Amino acid sequence: MNPSAGSSQPDITYLNHETTVSSWLLTRDHKRIGVMFLVLVILALLLGGVFAMVLRIELLTPGPTIISAMTYNRMFTLHGVTMVWLFMIPAIPSAFGNFVLPIMLGAKDVAFPRLNLASVYIYVAGAGLTLFGMLWSGADTGWTFYTPYSTTSPTAVAPILLGVFVIGFSTIITGLNFITTVHTLRAPGMHWSRIPLFVWALYGTSIIQVVATPVLGMVLLLVCFERVFGVGLFDPARGGDPVLFQHMFWFYSHPAVYIMVLPAMGVITEVVCAFSRKNIFGYKMIAASTFGIAFVGFFSWGHHMFVSGQSTFGSGVFGVLSMLVAIFTAIKIFNWVATMYGGSIDLKVPLLYVLGFIFLLMFGGMTGVAVATTSLDVHWHDTYFIVAHFHYIMVGAVLMAFLAALHYWWPKMFGRVYPERWSFLAASTIIFGFIVTFLPQFLLGNLGMPRRYYQYPAELQWLNVLSTAGASLLAFGFSLIAVYLLWSLRYGEASAANPWGSKGYEWHSGSPPAPHNFTEAPRFEREVHDYTVPEAPRAY
Amino acid sequence: MNELFRRMLFLPEQASTVAKDVDQLHYVIITTTMVAATLIFGTAAYFLIRFRRRSETEVTRKVEGTLGWEVLFVGLPLGTFLVWFFVGYHDFIRMQTPPPDAMDVYVVGKQWMWKFTYPEGPNAMGVLRVPVGKPVRLLLTSRDVIHSFYVPAFRIKQDAVPGAYTQTWFEVTKPGSYRVMCAEYCGLKHSEMWAEVLALSPEDYEAWMQEQRRGLVSRRDASPSAPEREEPYKPARQAARYDAQEPHGEVMYGERGTLAERGERVAAERGCLKCHTVDGTAHIGPTWRGLYGRRERLTTGETVVADEAYLTESMMKPQERLVEGFAPVMPTYLGELEAAEVAALVEYIKTLRGARLETIRSEGPVYEPIGGK
Ligand code: HEM
Ligand SMILES: [Cu+2]
Q1: I need a surface site. Which of A8, A486, A538, B55 has the fewest CB within 10 A?
Q2: What is each CA distance from B10 to A392, A460, B16, B163, in whole angstroms?
Q3: pTM to 2 decimal places
């Protein structure tokens, strides 16, 4: 059936060549490290998801429902911190990036395999510290840690800040590793113009990570200093400037949303090509827009601060620059859609997630343009409209792309096929559940419900109930995925070397790949995702 | 049309002069974006069906973007976005620039209530009474953490930042009661930090004000929606150092007299008058007579209008923008003066304006930072 089916697969793979526990824990193989990250980020997703469900259940009634206000406030902080720093930022780069980036470049491993292993343990240490803070007493500042509340709140903010600070190093190391790998370990024939777009996306992301994360680290440490030693940087009662924190925080965290979303866009590019059996419509435009986003993303942070007392002129500048970021995103969307033109499209589950992605990103991005319009944002700022906007973008993008990647590369990683029907059901449930969850939140925001509200006016109840119903659907979809993926690990059908007939370079290796990725040197004779040339049969 | 869209988009009533303009742009943008998004997604869905895989061995053509397409992809949305931006920014400037004839009210956010002080005397907690049809400028600050003053029906929102005064304004178009909420997370009872704007007809407002002036100045006006509450825990900081500074802490809420009269007392007690005069002669520092609204020449050669923001900044960060001809000797009062005292001082300085009385705020929009930064 399949063009590449029937080719021989390697007998010794990265999964079975060594099987002791220590061979995993001390491995320097980027593929095993990717798998370890995959497990870790899925645990984080689960934890953050449980918090989210509790929050949604609490909001079923306008007053107290199941938890106290204090618990609620801590819970949304934990939800945000876990999802942002433990899931969305590392998910795609650290798990899938680690796994496929070297293979795509024809390399045996990343440039610094030991550092790569260290990044796992740094992540674990940071996550541990954060969890410790949560159990100790839990911060109630929101994931944004705005001062002077965060420097005066009686909860355990410091361990959580330090935890996030530590995780930042993991991110930086991964970024450095990717940048160096791309520069030094490309196989012969891998010109810059042939680099897969997923790699370009990771490369752009890595630059943001390396440049911006230290700023976040600094500002978090400063908040810690202020809490512990009482230095007066942000608290006006001690002579500090509370809004300074917001500038420093968003200088990192605005680009950080692109740390989350750029790798997701990279995944989408790969999947669109593979399932449309087409080359990408505008290779250069997609690669360039990645850097456009990475660059302009650094100069739009002020759109989070239109009502903070920032100058009117400043708001105007940040507003215009935000529009530019939106353009780069629009370019990508147009190119993905145009790629499908003239293709041979097979609507498998990864592509279904891509459609979900495009749908959500479009509405999320369009509402982004709306909130970047200064006069409108005054009404929307800090309301549920914003909550809906960034969930559409971040969850819509990162989660959809994560699930697309998970299904697309599942055979590559584990050599098993997942059950198509179950996964189709789960994907439809998730996309539908997602819309039911977050669409009402746009309306809640229009009605004027501020975010981080434990209690709300009674007339807003039905929209909140609707949202919680959607969240339950989402949770159901996720449990389905968990069940059938675990099932397929054991009982799933063995996969062909290239079950999708994809012409992404990562399929040059076996599925699952051999310990050093290739049993014979890969040859890059064609451009990536060029489906017009027939592929020579390949021994893996 | 307006009403239809408003209901479809679940927007609250439009009770201020800017609300309708803001909403109008809202309709345009949301409609256009949704139509565009649907079109693009519709195209994707169409391709999905039109180009679905028919056989496993199907070979596709190579299609590559041309410059024309890419220019269209970039130019069309960019042009649209910029138009929206300019229309929106036009409204935004208006929302940020109080009209010259606006009446002032000082607003202080505090965990978890809103307090309002009128320069003419009255204080109120939880209820802001304003006349319909008159612009009201709010000068906002906070006693502890950042709060955000949000009136959905007016489409306005402004952060109240401790240690600085920010401003916003509105003009109510119809009498009624409008909900005020806190939009910036501020701790345990953030979601209960509500107040009410009570828009009265000018006659009712005047009557209320007269009543307040007849000796009821310090009466606390407790709102049903935001009663003064017990604080369930002490924040880690010594519950705001400002409170430790009694009796000054009560200058806004406890004492009698107009805000300006209270300001005169604060100036004497806090030692401002050791360096500043009120009779027009320069001393160690610039005189306060005629200061409000004056154009001051700075050591950097720039000029600045001495408005509320600059006056506040001069108390908090006196060295930041020094007036030419004076030594940098003024100590900072950041963390020393309570928000209410700053308000009182500013009002006092305003009463010393002498002959040039009306020049301030009629000079067109002032694009100065409204916070003290
Ligand atoms: C493409 C990826 C995007 C991501 C991942 C993203 C993510 C986010 C996040 C996380 C927030 C909320 C931050 C918070 O307050 O907690 C946010 C707010 C915001 N976003 Fe986006 N966004 C994206 C696209 C856009 C675009 C294209 C625009 C503008 C053209 C935009 C404009 C805004 C604005 C103005 C806010 C702040 C609104 C407010 O707080 O009042 N976003 N975004
Ligand atoms: Cu608040």
Answers
A1: B55
A2: 19, 11, 17, 36
A3: 0.86
